[in-house]
Design goal:
The complex is a heterodimer of chains A (377) and B (264). By secondary structure, chain A is of the alpha/beta class. In chain A, 44% of the residues lie in helices and 15% in strands. Chain A has 16 helices and eleven strands. Classes of the chains: A alpha/beta (377), B mainly alpha (264). Chain A binds chain B through residues 54, 58-61, 79-84, 95-96, 98-101, 240-241, 243-244, 247-248, 260, 263, 267, and chain B through 38-39, 41-42, 59, 117, 120-121, 124, 131, 210, 212-217, 221-222, 224-230, 232.
């Protein structure tokens, strides 16, 4: 009799537990935003293509579980190769337009536009991307260089800023919070790096001088060049990935993208990020489907998957770049929201520039290339 | 007398410097492969976690296996082609021999970037060879065979050909002669070229990078792609394993030779 009573209680408790778990999962996390499944036609196509997906992206950037979960859920095998620089990836596609990658991730709008002009990209099929249609912020659906996301999509936003080690860099410096910290004075001589990329290097100088990041004006570019030439002897290196140098305290002050700084700060709290008060450059971390793709439906399935709210939260939490998904910000921790460059107010946003065509074509581009060569000599 | 002492001192300093520069990086790699530091660049306490990672990280393991397979096939085919070519170049006389002999040098003297992009265009536009193992192995054979040719040719120039003539004279077929007489005498040169070709093929980044297809990332390409977040110490563990395996091999060879000598 007593045994029976115990048994009943156990069952009741078990049922209660079951329901409470069910209720909590429902209410918590991203479950409240609907996951729009891809249409059956897309799934049929994925099966017909052979359940494979070839991705070309950065190594060790996105969380591995994200790819593993995708394979588990859809039975699509992912093969990933990695590039070490987006220029390298663009060259590869240029040399062999039929390179059979299905999806390229982590590039920038300038890469997407250049490849599109060479007719090396496939158009996106929006009927197969219901999550992206529902959740991509409107401002990223109508970018001037690609209204309607015909050939590219952003998965997050990057801001170019600088990062410093608070142990060595004086936070009360009057230039702190200005691009000027990288250009004025001799205090951090030999302990600074700049991104090894002409758009970013010129961009930092142009913003400090109060001009547009995209400037194609000769006078402005010459001023920027003079600034960069004066800065050059103070640099430890032009290095796009100074993570190791910062971590080992070989350099203290680095021109860097905000999410990469977040990665470092998670491991080494004295590393801080800051948004320069003059404004900066921002653009989407961009993905696209190259012409040689043989598993195009699987690529769409994957894009739709990363715009599913839970998956997008998982992604953004990991990489530390601000989201383009309408609801992802709601699930971010306070710590993450406090990180500069993650929550941007409108007033600051207006001071920033984003990608314009004149950055990669016309007289501005020619002059920049020439000046950059002179700087690097 | 005094002069000699100074000279020997300088020699001593120079050779120890050379040894230090040769060995220090390798020792550092071995030490840092046990360090807790995430970038493998300083000492932060002992750990074996990078070794665990090496054996559990599919990407590294796959890349390593691919590199080993490619280098293995390349060594066998390239030394074979090299031996035959060298033999032909030495023994036969034909029109354009000098031209052929010089042109074999091309893959070595051309910058790898040129060879790589030329091969890519050749594979994708002219003859359709699937990018992946086939294209990478062919490319490696292209730049490795000349090495074998020249090492073996060098040996042939210091070769006592009367042995071969004697064998032929005594009625052995040319094939049998090569197998029993010429071949064995060339063996040290063939082995030397194989030992040179293996690291060449295993290390190659530039040419492989151009002709690699989807899912054929080799170890050097993998390491290079890790630059953004600083190559992880897993790379150091691979280095350590290779150094230790090579050392072990060398020690074994030494003892085997020593035993062979004392037996005879």
């Amino acid at each position: 009799m007593k045994k029976n009573y115990f048994f009943n209680t156990a069952i009741v408790l078990f049922i209660l537990l079951f329901f409470s778990i069910a209720i909590f999962t429902e209410a918590s996390a991203a479950g409240k935003y609907k996951d729009y499944k891809v249409p059956q036609s897309c799934m049929d196509e994925v099966r017909k293509e052979g359940n494979k997906l070839y991705i070309y992206d950065w190594a060790e950037w996105w969380p591995e579980e994200l790819f593993e979960n995708f394979t588990k859920e859809f039975g699509v095998k992912i093969v990933r190769d990695h590039y070490a620089d987006t220029e390298e990836m663009v060259t590869k596609l240029k040399l062999n337009p039929n390179t059979p990658y299905d999806l390229i991730l982590g590039a920038g709008p300038s890469d997407a536009v250049r490849l599109h002009k060479m007719k090396l990209l496939k158009e996106l099929t929006h009927a197969w991307l219901p999550n992206m249609s529902a959740y991509l912020k409107d401002e990223y659906k109508s970018l001037p260089f690609d209204p309607g996301n015909k050939f590219q999509f952003p998965d997050s936003i990057f801001y170019t800023t600088y990062t410093y080690n608070a142990k060595y860099v004086d936070e009360n410096d009057p230039l702190m919070g200005s691009w000027g910290l990288l250009f004025e004075g001799d205090k951090y001589k030999g302990k600074m790096t700049m991104i090894d990329n002409q758009m970013e290097a010129f961009g930092a100088a142009l913003k400090y001088l109060g001009y547009s990041y995209n400037s194609d004006n000769e006078k402005e570019l010459m001023e920027a060049k003079a600034l960069l030439m004066a800065q050059k002897p103070k640099l430890a290196a032009y290095d796009s990935w100074p993570s190791r140098l910062l971590k080992d305290e070989d350099v203290w002050l680095s021109h860097l993208w905000i999410g990469d700084a977040w990665w470092l700060a998670r491991e080494k709290p004295e590393i801080k990020g800051i948004m320069p008060k003059e404004g900066t450059y921002y653009a989407g971390n961009t993905g696209f489907i190259p012409k040689g793709s043989k598993h195009t439906a699987a690529a769409h399935l994957f894009i739709n998957y990363i715009f599913r709210t839970e998956v997008n939260v998982q992604l953004v939490e990991w990489i530390g770049y601000p989201p383009v998904h309408k609801h992802t910000m709601e699930f971010m921790s306070d710590e993450m929201k406090a990180w500069p460059g993650f929550v941007i107010d409108e007033a600051y946003q207006r001071k920033c520039d984003t990608f314009e065509m004149r950055l990669i074509e016309g007289k501005g581009k020619e002059l920049r290339d020439k000046l950059w060569e002179e700087i690097k000599k | 007398m005094k002069k000699k002492r100074i000279a020997s001192k300088i020699l001593w300093v120079l050779s120890s410097l050379t040894l230090i520069f040769l060995w220090a990086p390798m020792i550092l790699i071995i030490v840092f492969s046990f360090s807790n530091n995430k970038y493998g660049s300083s000492w932060e306490g002992f750990t074996l976690k990078w070794y665990v990672k090496l054996f559990t990280n599919d990407q590294v393991r796959d890349a390593l296996m691919r590199s080993l397979i490619i280098a293995g096939v390349t060594v066998v085919v390239a030394t074979l082609i090299g031996t035959i070519t060298a033999y032909g170049l030495y023994k036969l006389n034909f029109r354009g021999k000098q031209f052929l002999r010089t042109s074999i040098l091309l893959p070595i003297v051309f910058p790898s970037v040129v060879t790589g992009s030329a091969l890519l265009v050749f594979f994708t536009r002219l003859v359709h060879i699937p990018l992946g193992y086939p294209s990478i192995i062919i490319a490696h054979i292209v730049f490795c065979s000349p090495l074998a040719v020249f090492i073996i040719l060098g040996r042939m120039q210091r070769f006592d050909w009367s042995w071969e003539e004697a064998a032929l004279d005594l009625g052995a077929t040319p094939f049998r002669t090569f197998l029993r007489v010429t071949g064995p005498q060339l063996l040290p040169a063939i082995m030397a070229s194989a030992m040179l070709i293996f690291p060449w093929s295993f290390d190659d980044f530039v040419i492989t990078y151009f002709v690699a297809g989807v899912g054929s990332t080799t170890l050097p390409i993998y390491v290079f792609s890790q630059l953004r977040f600083g190559a992880t110490p897993v790379i150091n563990t691979i280095g350590t394993l290779f150094v230790s395996i090579t050392m072990l091999g060398m020690v074994l060879v030494y003892f085997v030779q020593k035993m062979g000598k004392s037996n005879s």
